[in-house]
Amino acid sequence: MSDMRDSIDAYVERWIKPSVRKQKAYSIEPSDGLIKLDTMENPFLWPEKLQEDWAARLKTASLNRYPDPDANELTEDFTNRYGLNDDTSVLFGNGSDEIIQLIATAVAQPGKKLMSPEPSFSMFRQVAQFQGLEFISVPLDENFELDLELTLNKIEREDPAVIFLAQPNNPTGNLWGREKLRRIIEAAQGLVVIDEAYTAFTDADFLSWVEELPNLLVMRTLSKIGLAGIRLGVLFGHKAWLEQINKVRLPYNINVLTQMTAKFALDNVGFLQDQTQELVRQRETLFQKLSEFSVLRLYPSQANFILVRCESGKGPALHSALKSRGILVKNLNDAHSSLQDCLRINVSSSSENAAMLTALNAVLTEDLSD
Ligand SMILES: *Cc1c(COP(=O)(O)O)cnc(C)c1O
After folding, report:
1. List of residues 6+ apart from 14 with CB closer than 8 A
2. What per-residue confidence (pLDDT) applies to 367?
3. C-beta of residue 356 within 8 angstroms of C-beta of residue 322
4. What whole-number distance in Å separates Cα of residue 167 and Cα of residue 236?
5. Alpha-carbon distances, residue 354 vs 105, 127, 305, 369 (angstroms)
6. How far apart are the first and last CA of the chain?
7. Beta strands at 233-238 and 216-221: parallel, antiparallel or unpaired
8. Element of type H or E holding 98
9. Alpha helix segments (H runs only) across 291-363
10. What whole-number percentage of the chain has pLDDT above 70?
């Protein structure tokens, strides 16, 4: 056995590229039996009647056939839903994660660069590294605001092929303001992608800009509004851009069940909108309650999570103490140097939020008090 292992290790060393060998696989903490507040899922179930209608619809799926390679029905649905003009369309990915990869694949050439502020969504950096793009990081300031001068300077110096801007930003939850975004898009010589994964939880909306700014694409996803399981990301942009990016998409990336389920959910989208509105209300209540813990620093959020920083050196202990009380939140202590002692907590149903607050109160007043 160990000869076999040694032998494979030698192959790996020789043939797997260094940028892959040195990376860790993306991993998610096991959550069995825990209240899951770590990955921004919608906690609510579907009304029973809808669930039955959906199951009846799925029964008609032709599982022996390949899916529609271009997801035409969904494309039409999105085009109409958002009133896109004739030059603008959508391209679907197996989650917006895949879309980030498609864009990077389309622009990757030796010496080219992918830029993003940090801390932000970790996939931007990961994908850049896989594709052999140099990753250019622009540090956010101590309040996680975007430093416009610094960003514009870096754009001029580095000339990135693509810039990713998550709005609201993950994991900080904030918006950077229309004026700054506009200046960045206009200064960039390359493509800019605004990642609106949390659009359902904010009034900020940059979709209309794709019809006037030639280097802008906007990305959304169904994951955060309640369909994380089906994996459907959406890229909005001018057809001339989508035509190029579509060439690096593998055929049939959106499976039959996802296409059917997304269509069904969008035809009945009212219940998902009600659920997200409830989460927006819960966010305000939760923020208020969390602010009563004087040892926590909170960052205002326009998304379905709240970033909190606890006392110096105590972040990881707080994370594990909550976990041992049945609450799983995201430990960001090692995610970026500016996130030391930070936890990211999903906004959930009132009962799950209450359970989290009870555990937090117990931990802060008992377990960590000395
Ligand atoms: C969650 C998240 C995504 C990933 O969305 P999927 O469609 O589930 O792949 C993309 N961008 C940001 C900023 C996110 O937080």
Report:
1. none
2. 61
3. yes
4. 15
5. 44, 37, 15, 21
6. 49
7. antiparallel
8. helix 96-107
9. 315-324, 350-362
10. 99
In angstroms, the CA 36 to CA 81 distance is 32
Give the Cα separation of 53 and 55 in Å (integer): 5
Task: Enter the tokens of residue 363.
Answer: 């931990």
How far is Cα 98 from Cα 248, in angstroms, rounded to an integer?
11
Answer for the pair 185, 192: CB distance below 8 angstroms, yes or no: yes
Of the candidates 122, 195, 172, the one whose C-alpha atom is nearest the C-alpha of residue 303 is: 172
Q: Rounded CA gap, 197 and 119, in Å? A: 16
Calculate how far, in angstroms, residue 144's C-alpha sits from the geometric centre of ligand 1: 19
Tokens of 345: 């907590």
List, chain by chain if needed, residues with CB within 6 Å of any ligand 1 atom: 40, 95-97, 121, 166, 170, 195, 197, 221, 223, 228, 233
Give the other-Cβ count within 10 Å of 134's Cβ.
15
In angstroms, the CA 314 to CA 368 distance is 8
Judge whether 364 and 327 are in contact, CB under 8 Å.
Answer: no
Q: Which of 170, 202, 225 to mutate to test the pocket of ligand 1 (most atoms within 8 A of CB)?
A: 170
223-269 pLDDT, tens per residue? 999 999 999 999 999 999 999 999 999 999 999 999 999 999 999 99
In whole angstroms, what is the distance from residue 198 CA to residue 194 CA?
11
β-strand 191-195 against 162-166: which pairing, if any? parallel
